[in-house]
Design goal:
The chain contains 14 helices and 13 strands. The chain is of the alpha/beta class. The protein has two domains: about 140 residues, Aspartate Aminotransferase, domain 1 (Alpha-Beta Complex), CATH 3.90.1150; about 240 residues, 3-Layer(aba) Sandwich (Aspartate Aminotransferase, domain 2), CATH 3.40.640.10. It has a seven-stranded mixed sheet with strand order 2-8-7-6-5-3-4, with helices on both faces. The structure holds pyridoxal-5'-phosphate.
Length: about 400
C-alpha cells in the first residue's frame, strides 16, 4: 500500500550526518566503550522527589484522562513563571500543556501555517525542525547564518524570504550552536515579523541554561505577544526528558484553537506527569540552577582546554548544553572529523552538517558526561585535531 507523501517525505531524504551517531550506538551495542557526546540528555536522572511526587499523584488516582489543555494548576504555574521571567501579562488562558516541546513545535506550526505555506527556520537548526515543518504541511525555507557572525541571524537575510512566508522559527539559547541571540538580533527579528505579518515561533526550551548575556523572550518585545508562540519544556530545565511535558504560550485565541487540535491529536498529557511537573516548577530557580550547573562547570573546563591550543575554534558558548567547535583547520568536513575521531579514539560527537550546511566544518559536543571523562575526551579531541591539521 502506498503511504502518504507527508510521511514518506518527512526527512527530505539524503545523508544528514546522523550516520556517525548510529555507528556510535552500534559500537556501544557491541560492547565497545564509547564516550558519547552526542545527544542533549543530562547525565543525571530525574530527581527522586519529583518521581516521588509523580508516584503519589498516580497512587492518588491521577491516572485517567487529564484535562486536554493541561491541568489548571500546571497552566497557572507555567503562566506565573513566564510572567515573572518576561514581564508579559500571562494567564492560564495563554498556556497549553503538550507532550514535550517537540509536540509543541508541531502544533505551533499547524496553528500558524496552512498546507503549502512557507515556514522559515534558521540554519544551523535543531535536527527535527525541517521534518516538523514538512509534517505540518508547510514548505520549509532555510535562513542562513554565518560562523563568522557567531550564527546570529541577520534581519536582512530573513527579510529576503519573509514577504511570502507565514512563520519564522527561532531557538535561543540555541541548539546546536550554544549561542544566545542578542537583544539587537531579536529586535531585528521582531521588526521583520511585524513588517511582514509573520508568526514567530520561539523555541525557548534552554531558557534556564544561560552562561553569558541574558535570555530575552521575544514575546516581551513591543507588539510581539499577539504574534508569538513560545515553546517551553520540562525536559532540559528539570532533567525530565522522558516525562514528555512541555507547553505553548501564546494569545488566548490561538491557545483555544490549539486545544481543539490537541483534542483531535494528543488528547493531553498524563495527570501524574503534570502534577510532578508542577511540583518540579515549584522548586524554583535554585533547583533549575542546580540542574544547569554541570553544564556551566564543563563549559569552564572546556574554555580552559581550548585556550591552550589554537587548532580547534570555539563558537561563543553562551548557553545550552553544547559546544560548537570549528575544526576547519584540519581541512576535514565535520562529518569526516567525527568519523575519524570515533574510529581513532572512540569519542562520538555530532557533525555540524547534521544541523544544516552553515555548520559545515564544525562539530557539536554535548557536555553530557561527567567532568573528568568530559575533560579527557576534549583534550583528546584537540590533540587529534592538531595531528590532523599538521598532517
Ligand atoms: N527544541 C530544541 C532546540 C531541542 O534541542 C529539543 C530537544 O533536544 C526540543 C526542542 C524538544 O525537547 P522535548 O520534546 O524533550 O521537550
Amino acid at each position: 500500500m502506498q503511504l502518504s507523501q507527508r510521511i514518506t517525505g518527512l526527512t527530505g531524504g539524503g545523508s544528514d550526518g546522523w550516520d556517525v551517531f548510529l555507528k556510535a550506538r552500534e559500537m556501544i551495542a557491541q560492547g565497545i566503550d564509547v564516550t558519547e557526546l552526542t545527544i542533549g540528555e543530562h547525565d543525571i536522572r530525574t530527581a527522586a522527589p519529583i518521581l516521588q511526587d509523580m508516584h503519589a499523584s498516580a497512587m492518588d488516582g491521577h491516572t485517567g484522562y487529564a484535562a486536554v489543555p493541561g491541568t489548571q494548576d500546571l497552566r497557572e504555574t507555567v503562566a506565573a513563571r513566564v510572567q515573572a521571567r518576561t514581564g508579559v501579562p500571562t494567564t492560564a488562558a495563554n498556556v497549553m500543556i503538550t507532550p514535550g516541546g517537540q509536540a509543541a513545535l508541531f502544533a505551533a506550526h499547524l496553528a500558524a501555517c496552512d498546507t503549502g505555506d512557507t515556514a522559515l527556520y534558521i540554519d544551523p537548526y535543531y535536527a527535527t525542525y525541517p521534518g516538523t515543518l514538512r509534517g505540518a504541511g508547510a514548505l520549509p525555507q532555510v535562513i542562513e547564518t554565518r560562523a563568522e557572525e557567531a550564527f546570529q541571524p541577520r534581519a536582512d537575510a530573513i527579510k529576503a524570504h519573509s514577504k511570502s512566508a507565514r512563520s519564522l522559527l527561532i531557538n535561543t539559547p540555541n541548539n546546536p550552536t550554544g549561542v544566545v541571540y542578542s537583544d539587537a538580533t531579536l529586535q531585528g527579528i521582531a521588526d521583520v515579523c511585524l513588517a511582514d505579518d509573520l508568526w514567530l515561533i520561539s523555541d525557548e526550551v534552554y531558557d534556564t541554561q544561560v552562561w553569558e548575556g541574558r535570555h530575552l523572550s521575544p514575546r516581551a518585545l513591543p507588539g510581539m505577544a499577539e504574534r508569538t508562540l513560545v515553546v517551553g519544556s520540562m525536559s532540559k530545565s528539570h532533567a525530565m526528558t522522558g516525562s514528555r511535558c512541555g507547553w505553548i504560550v501564546g494569545p488566548s485565541q490561538a491557545i483555544d484553537h490549539l486545544i481543539t487540535l490537541a483534542t483531535h491529536t494528543t488528547y493531553g498529557v498524563p495527570g501524574f506527569i503534570q502534577d510532578a511537573s508542577r511540583f518540579a516548577l515549584d522548586q524554583g530557580t535554585h533547583f533549575e540552577n542546580e540542574i544547569a550547573e554541570p553544564f556551566r562547570r564543563r563549559r569552564e573546563i572546556a574554555a580552559g582546554i581550548l585556550a591552550r591550543q589554537n587548532t580547534v575554534g570555539l563558537v561563543p558558548a553562551q548557553g545550552a548544553m553544547y559546544l560548537m567547535l570549528d575544526v576547519r583547520a584540519t581541512h576535514m568536513t565535520g562529518e569526516a572529523f567525527a568519523y575519524d575521531l570515533l574510529e581513532a579514539h572512540r569519542i562520538a560527537v555530532m557533525p555540524g552538517e547534521s544541523f544544516g550546511s552553515c555548520a559545515a566544518g564544525h562539530i557539536r559536543v554535548a557536555m553530557t558526561v561527567e567532568d573528568s571523562a568530559f575533560s579527557f575526551a576534549l583534550q583528546t579531541l584537540c590533540r587529534h585535531a592538531e595531528a590532523r591539521a599538521a598532517a
